[in-house]
Design a protein that fits this description.
The protein has 257 residues and is mostly helical. It has 12 helices and no strands. The radius of gyration is 22 Å and the shape is globular.
């Protein structure tokens, strides 16, 4: 389909379409909206993935080392957003980010700060979606990190402590290297999910304001809705190639040595 000029009207006569070579790919890459969507997606991934992993690892360390009582309750609480409907999450976050009576702007007002219209601002709309995505998704990575931490023998850290290593040194030079396979898995799965992000802008901002939150998946969805199936499938394949390349790079950087 991506190498043809197939449109919605051609579905009844699929063999009457013409081949167009790489024209759809050239058109997609030269389309201003698609390039804006690619930039937004890159922004979302570059900021969102590391932030999600850091928050997830921090929560996992806290549960593994600091919280002994009610640990199961904390696990359920942190993981709950993962299995919660995006529609319910969107309603909650719209209330939190409401410019007039939202919880966030109300709290900022207590300290004399006039909060912006988060979801209607070109500056703050994408960071708001990233914050929501991190809150919603870090629970999955946290569970995996926690399993990795609990799989490391206590003797490893005890040996570092005997050698005089401090808490941060033991974590940096002993624990993190042993977590490399776990970091690889969580970074790959989180990265793939964030490269395909669609629900957040579709539900919260509809890609606005002024396409500042439109994603590649959303741009692809729009082209399917417009009936431009050849162009839409070329966009989908471009995203597929990017996901494959990013995943390959992650495997090269994080593989065990």
């Amino acid at each position: 389909m991506s190498f043809t000029d197939i449109k919605q009207r051609d579905l009844r006569t699929p063999f009457s379409v013409d081949g167009v070579g790489f024209d759809n790919y050239v058109k997609a890459l030269s389309d201003e909206t698609f390039r804006k969507a690619a930039f937004n997606t890159a922004y979302f991934v570059i900021v969102g993935v590391p932030l999600t992993l850091v928050v997830a690892l921090g929560a996992a360390v806290l549960l593994d080392r600091g919280v002994k009582r009610f640990q199961a309750l904390f696990k359920v609480g942190y993981y709950l957003p993962v299995v919660t409907s995006i529609v319910a999450i969107a309603v909650i976050w719209r209330f939190v980010l409401s410019p007039d009576n939202g919880l966030l702007n109300t709290a900022l007002g207590w300290v004399g700060i006039d909060g912006p219209n988060w979801l209607a601002s070109k500056t703050w709309a994408m960071p708001s979606l990233i914050a929501m995505a991190v809150w919603r998704n870090f629970g999955s990575a946290m569970i995996i990190f926690l399993a990795g931490l609990q799989g490391i023998p206590e003797s490893v850290e005890e040996a570092g402590q005997i050698d005089g290593a401090g808490s941060w040194q033991r974590f940096r030079y002993l624990i993190l290297p042993l977590l490399r396979p776990t970091v690889l898995f969580t970074s790959v799965t989180t990265g793939i999910g964030y490269l395909q992000f669609f629900e957040e802008p579709f539900v919260m901002t509809q890609g606005g304001p002024l396409d500042s939150t439109i994603s590649v998946s959303m741009a692809t969805y729009d082209q399917f809705g417009f009936g431009n199936y050849g162009l839409a499938t070329s966009m989908a394949y471009i995203l597929f190639v990017v996901i494959a390349v990013v995943t390959f790079i992650q495997f090269r950087l994080l593989r065990e040595k």
